[in-house]
Amino acid sequence: MNAISTKGSAKEVIRVRDRFYILATSSLADTRTQVLKHGETFAVFDRYGDIEPIGQSAQGVFYEGTRYLSRMVLRLQGSRPMLLSSAVKEDNMLLAVDLTNSDITSNGNVLLPRGALHLAREKFLWEATCYERITVTSYSSSPLSVSLSLQFEADFADVFEVRGMRRERRGRLDVRAKAGEAVLAYEGLDGVLRRSRIQCSPRPSRMDAGELRFDVTLQPKGQEVFLVTVACETEPASIPAPRPFQIAFEQAEGALEEARSQSPEIHTSNEQFNDWVNRASADLRMLVSDTPQGPYPYAGVPWFSTAFGRDGIITALEMLWAEPLMARSVLAYLASTQATEVDPQADAEPGKILHETRKGEMAALKEVPFARYYGSVDATPLFIMLAGAYFERTEDRSLIKSIWPNVERALRWIDDYGDIDGDGFVEYARRSAKGLEHQGWKDSRDAVFHANGDLAEAPIALCEVQGYVYAARRRAAELAEALGHAEQAARLREQAAQLRAKFEEAFWCEDISSYALALDGHKKPCQVQTSNSGQCLFTGIASPEHARRTAQALLESDMFTGWGIRTVSSGTPRYNPMSYHDGSVWPHDNALIAAGMAGYGLSEAAARVFTGLFDATLFLDLHRMPELFC
């Protein structure tokens, strides 16, 4: 243990080697965070607007999969100010934090009474730069002289390191400071030079390799403004130089307004429902990043702020009725990254659609296989489904003609690589030792199991994946017909019909009135009641009678919480409502299930699911649908 700080309440902050920890009993141990994102940059702050290096904390400013700022804490006279309020604007663009001072004493004398100063922090991201404006206002009746400091560090940790992975070697750090600017540089083992350039206006009174300080003198009702930028730079690539705060803010606002103008306005007579829709729209706009092929919805902050095939496709499918242009750019992006060769380390085969892509140092060095990783059994048929649904919505023949070769390659992947053992079903078994063990949307280690709780052995054929393949062949037949390939269209429809018949025979489980979760490597069905069976309604592979019974089973008390359908039944051995995939409720999963119910005319069942999700938003923070809840 190197040191224990004794400044103010910081006795509860312990530094061990190069890492800080806050005691669990500490009032500082507030795990609530505020999130900003723009393009390839995202930032996670605590409610004070600080970045505190607490254990394996996810806080920081990240750019292209690397943490460019791992510590940035504001101190007034060496102490943490008191929090008044903290909020991200409804449009997710700006973090606004209001602070004041606690009693600041020396030798028992009060030098600065509590509440004499108001500190307003405003932060936003724009073009790989974090902008901050700190406004200090005095409400004292006499002049005040105080010091304001920002302590900073950059560890340049790869996002997988922040998640807990350990590396045997790292690159070289270098920190240099001069008047008004500090440059924290990291030369990675991948040969890329990454820099965090911290600049201030006005010039600070003092600046060194880990702290900048402003000495402030304020008259009664006086005010001072301090501007700080943290630019994330890489070489040989370059980013625009930081702009003045107000200019950058206006540019960011203009870009957000332009994005908002591309979306329809949705308004109903229910204000609570409007709040839900508006929150979802703002969150989706924040997650969208520009690619050479157009805007792509990234999967989530902090761990999944990158392009995922499955997530992008499902988002585009669910938004197709309102924003079809999103589907267009998702299709174009995934077509451009479609696998062209066999690469076992990336779980890639010709025609396969991307699972995820990463830009960090560990991906570049193949310490993780995710630079371009294809370990997803469902993204490929989902890609075809999206292409067909997009054409039905838009009749955009030019795009479909341009990606038709990609659709055909995806169909060949289904036949040549997806069906591992030639039984007519698409299975998965990872080939990369570092890849995902389970390659459906439920990719937890324990997500696929039998009724007695035993884990299923690969290769595994998931029920919903067979539905995706069925729908993909039907959608591909529609596209083939539209492009004048009548014989191919007829062949695809026949394949779909054969798959549907085989599926009913192999997957239907009379005892649970539902489809088996999967067939394991021995073709033994996993007779477990799961939400996966509900997605078989979304794809249309279920027979009408079995669709009705499946929907009924999903709304029984062991599956339906009142807020949504669980991922697995509460009666299964592995049920855990707090798990990732074994009992929690996933909104996207419920949305697909409800759409499937409606497609079979089961409107009352669909309405129960929809109403449950809506009711949940009334109690969720900001009316925001999380990835999952319990």
Characterization of this structure:
With 630 residues, the chain is α+β, with helices and mostly antiparallel strands. Helices cover 31% and strands 24% of the residues. The chain contains 14 helices and 29 strands. The longest helix has 22 residues, at 397-418. The chain is elongated, with a radius of gyration of 27 Å.
What is the strand and helix layout of this fold?
Layout lengths: L2 E2 L8 E4 L2 E4 L10 E6 L2 E6 L13 E4 L2 E4 L1 E6 L5 E7 L6 E6 L3 E3 L2 E4 L4 E10 L2 E10 L5 E10 L5 H4 L9 E7 L2 E7 L5 E9 L4 E2 L3 E8 L4 E13 L9 H17 L9 H17 E4 L2 E4 L11 H11 L4 H13 L19 E2 L3 H4 L7 E2 L5 H16 L2 H22 L42 E2 H20 L3 H22 E2 L4 E2 L2 E2 L12 H8 L4 H11 L32 H13 L3 H15 L13
Antiparallel strand pairs: 1-2, 2-3, 4-5, 5-6, 6-7, 8-15, 9-10, 10-13, 11-12, 13-14, 14-21, 15-20, 16-17, 17-18, 18-21, 19-20, 22-23, 24-25, 26-29, 27-28
What would a concise description of this structure say?
By secondary structure, the protein is α+β, with helices and mostly antiparallel strands. The protein is 31% helix and 24% strand.
Brief descriptors of the model:
single chain; 630 residues; alpha+beta; 4-stranded antiparallel sheet; 14 helices; 29 strands; 31% helix; elongated
